[in-house]
Amino acid sequence: MSDRESNGADAEPSADLTHTDESGEAQMVDVGDKPDTARRAVARGTIRLRPETVDAVRENSIDKGDVLATARVGAIQAVKHTWETIPMCHQIPITNVDVDFSPGEDAVELTVAVETTGKTGCEMEALEGTTTGLNVVWDMVKSAEKDADGDYPETGIESVEVVEKTKRPL
Fold this sequence. Notes:
The structure is a single chain. The protein is of the alpha+beta class. The protein has one domain (37-169): 2-Layer Sandwich (Alpha-Beta Plaits). It has 4 helices and 4 strands; from the N terminus they run βαααββαβ. The chain has helices at 51-58, 67-80, 82-85, 123-145, and strands at residues 37-48, 94-103, 107-118, 156-169. It has a 4-stranded antiparallel beta sheet, with helices on one face. The longest helix has 23 residues, at 123-145. It starts with 36 loop residues before the first strand and ends with a strand. Mean pLDDT is 90; it is low at 1-14.
């Protein structure tokens, strides 16, 4: 159980929400009886880069184009398609996505906030947006990050986490 319907804050204390049936077969959790609520989740992660690569991202001088604009589109697309890539994840109506990049000295931090109104949360969408956005940054800057052997000794994605999850009645 790793999805939004696991025995976390969204579960009713008496509810037995699980992704497997009595015989151990995978199944999608039935959220049909849950009330619609306004929900928000925020995830954050970081990609470590060479300082000169971060400078090139800031100056929009990466050969492939505008790194942050491309990664923003990738993050939003990932949010919208989370249900297609995470098994047993419900397709939910996304009402808003905010994508914020914070370039530092040797890293770029990405924060993705997702909002929905429905029966289940949106933390998986926020996580998918964050990881995909960071992957797009990597893809856009990989030629600048490769060493002489074609490796990425200073590049890494780290600290991806959900930093906020809220819900409120409508």
